[in-house]
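Hi C.,

You asked whether I'd gotten around to modeling the 357-residue construct. I have! Everything is below, sequence then structure, no commentary in between.
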Amino acid sequence: MRALRYYGPEDVRLKHDLPEPECLPHQVKIKPSWCGICGSDLNAYKYGAGIPFKDTPHPLTGETWPVTLGHEFSGDVVQVGSQAVGSFSVGDRVVVLPILCCGQCIPCRDGIENCCTSLGFLGLMGGGGGLSDFVAVDAQYVFKLPDNVPSDIGALVEPLAVAWHAVSKAHIAAHDDVVIMGAGPIGLATIECIKLRKPRNIIAVEISLERKRLAAILGATVVLDPREDDVVARCKECCDGVGPKVAIDCAGAASSIQTACQAIRPQGRVVNVASWQQAIPFDFNSLLIGEKTITAALSYSKEDFENVIKAMGDGSIHVGNMITRKTTMPRVVEEGFQALLQEKEKHVKILVDVRLA
């Protein structure tokens, strides 16, 4: 079968001679249809971030590079393991929650698998991935798509679940004011999820023209550009002179997290969703003054996936306009990874049609 394999920084190859995975009794074998490229994929492509190095196999998969990429994907069930019969049928359209966890550590036993002490992700750390002709996945992490949700939109369930998880941890109430730092795919998905909480103001902070435009379309009531606007002053001006109650940082820049802490009102909350490639200096007085708090939101839970799929099915969430390009496996490096790195101004979410040659 074909699979897009990672061999090292900026060395991704489409291989045509890999064996198909066996479908074990507890698994479902899936033929991926659509797969998204996200910031984690870009960091892996450019720097090797998250990929198990050759001398350090991942503790759950035992794999090192080369590994198959793709963790935001939808597909069709082609085989059902004996233990999953009754839950799935051949032909079901599904999406995959790509967490790899041990199931034995205290966080796993407490039901917070996203905090597993050996946490990994399918499509980054082994176990196959969505950028392949076939992948076998533990049935408990496979979710059916409603009939009215197209498979390309289904590939956006994973990033939306990241946003849903962050919004849940932010404890946003009706009529609250919220500022979103960064309007990339996760930031835009966060705007879409926040709208369901019926806030008063959603303030988006972004520099990309296309992403600013989409933020406004999706429901941001105020869109600020930190190159042109005093973000802290404008946030206070829009929110009773004291700032928003909640900030969600999706940008992952030292300036954005510091601005978020300064912009929120006393006893406000900052939720960090972004991943960081290196340590940053941080002024904790920006939290101490005003008794502000900061927390983190990492990936998602099964409940987050279920809630996103339900919201897509009942029409509460609409994210099709986040898709700015569709490409194919043979062209994914040039039209996917490199486009997102070199033409960030033009793109938000690029999807790969895995079925096309």
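If it helps when you're writing up: The chain has a mean pLDDT of 94.

Thanks,
B.
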